[in-house]
Design a protein that fits this description.
Number of strands: 19
Radius of gyration: 24 Å
Shape: elongated
Low-confidence stretches: none
Number of helices: 15
Number of domains: 2
Protein name: Leucyl aminopeptidase family protein
GO biological process, one term: proteolysis
Keywords: Aminopeptidase, Hydrolase, Manganese, Protease
Distance between the termini: 32 Å
Family: Belongs to the peptidase M17 family.
Pfam families: Peptidase_M17 (PF00883), Peptidase_M17_N_1 (PF21337)
Helix content: 25-40%
Length: 461
């Protein structure tokens, strides 16, 4: 699928984008023929509405797209993209109705709305093409959309075709595309390399666990991205009920998101030294599954009491984060579909994140607004540290009581990063539960565009 805007100057049908409050005024300034057509078709300017106005010969002359009300636009980002299903295939250009500062966002939304997951079903439908608006960087918009499509495709692929080996293959494909280095440690070699918790979580599956290590760039600050790659999570011996297991193909959403973010960085030529670490495992049930009450020793040497084998993501991330921190990069970012508690707290749309650095948080929050990629800062609340200290071991992987589950998981991960390292942790959902403008139901990229836009400020690029 081509993910691009048409070049400026391409012949196209003009689009007038009209808010609900603008329709009557605009129609009143048109010819009787156009005004009558708008009135006869009861076009009201609601988000997701569109109207094609033919010329006297019946050919497309003008397209109207509804932009809703100011209140509805706050609730539905990518309002322009909502109209794509109502527009006939063809090429269009924005003639009026969108503020200059919103053109990039709406152009991106147009591309994102054209996504379709086609791996298992032939989908030959043609989507409308948008001409690059004046002042919009078509290459940048295309890169952002490509990254999201990559992430969506990875998450949407079922575990039967997206195990640790297939996730490795996707990472290798990205490395080949950007002509960069990749190294993978697989199976029992993880023990030799001192990644004991990655090995322990993944050993029950006949699909070998592995650590994927991609490196790119030779100058600038070091950024290390760590993504949770649990390709399917049964819950282990603390097996999930069927209702909770149904979406566990998306438990590698953190890995998919960091690969999407890595594509943005590499395709844009950002002046950073990038490293991507993905612990890729399947949490399965077998005779050699790790057990409740086991005590594991991590790469860092900290011992972890297992009180729930379904809290496995933080275990594989812990070894990867320790490895990342040994290199002391300028910034470490982890992304993971880690806790249901985060969804209870902020729902599926917001991407909660944790950082102790106020400058980083300010940069992220501002970038998230610019990029229509909503995030929400959560606290590393130090008094809750006692909740992850079981007494029999250094750490507890699943504190009892059910309180502050996302916070305690973040505190657990922070223990494996050196205190002097700048660290951001995202506890994402990675899934769009219901279709919305520019965001079809299914796998989703969350927080990555905000991070990409914030890097220049937070890294002094």
């Amino acid at each position: 699928m081509t993910v691009a805007l048409a070049p400026a100057g391409t012949k196209a049908v003009p689009i007038h984008v009209l808010g609900a409050e603008d329709v009557a005024l605009w129609a009143g300034q048109q010819s009787d023929r156009i005004r009558t057509w708008v009135e006869a078709n009861a076009f009201k300017g609601g988000i997701g509405s569109a109207l094609m106005i033919p010329d006297a010969a019946g050919h497309p002359e003008i397209a109207l797209v509804g932009y809703g009300t100011p209140a509805s636009r706050k609730r539905d980002r990518f309002a322009l993209g909502a109209a794509l299903p109502k527009l006939a295939p063809g090429t269009y250009r924005i003639e009026s109705g969108i503020a200059e500062g919103d053109l990039e966002q709406e152009s991106l939304g147009w591309l994102l709305a054209s996504y379709g997951f086609t791996r298992y079903r032939d989908n030959t439908s043609q989507h409308p093409t948008l001409v690059t608006p004046d002042g919009v960087d078509a290459t940048r918009v295309s890169i952002l959309a490509e990254a999201e499509f990559l992430t969506r495709d990875l998450i949407n692929t079922p575990a039967s075709d997206m195990g640790p080996a297939e996730l490795e293959s996707a990472a290798r494909g990205l490395a080949e595309k950007h002509k960069t280095k990749i190294r993978v440690i697989t199976g029992d070699d993880l023990l030799q390399g001192n990644f004991p918790m990655i090995h322990t979580v993944g050993r029950a599956s006949d699909r070998a666990p592995r650590l994927i290590d991609l490196n790119w760039g030779s100058r600038g600050p070091k950024i290390t991205l760590v993504g949770k790659g649990v390709c399917f999570d049964t819950g282990g011996l603390n097996i999930k009920p069927g209702s909770s297991m149904g979406l566990m193909k998306k438990d590698m959403g953190g890995a998919a998101n960091v690969l999407g973010l890595a594509h943005m960085i590499m395709a844009s030529g950002l002046d950073v030294r990038l490293r991507v670490l993905i612990p890729a495992v399947e949490n399965s049930v077998s005779s050699n599954s790790f057990r409740p009450q086991d005590i594991l020793t991590s790469r860092k040497g900290l011992t972890v009491e297992i009180n729930n084998t379904d809290a496995e993501g933080r275990l594989v991330l812990a070894d990867a984060l320790t490895y990342a921190s040994e290199d002391h990069p300028d910034l470490i970012v982890s992304m993971a579909t880690l806790t249901g508690a985060a969804r209870v707290a902020v729902g599926p749309d917001l991407a909660p994140y944790y950082t102790d650095n106020d400058v980083v948080a300010t940069s992220l929050d501002l970038a998230a607004r610019r990029m229509a990629d909503p995030v929400w800062r959560m606290p590393f609340h130090d008094p809750y540290e006692t909740m992850i200290e079981p007494g029999i071991a250094d750490l507890d992987n699943a504190p009892k009581g059910g309180f502050a589950g996302s916070i305690t998981a973040a505190l657990f991960l922070r223990r494996f990063v050196s205190a002097e390292d700048r660290y951001i942790h995202f506890d994402i959902y990675g899934w769009q539960p219901t279709a919305a403008p520019g965001r079809p139901k299914g796998g989703a990229l969350q927080g990555a565009r905000a991070l990409f836009a914030a890097f220049p400020d937070m890294m002094d690029l």
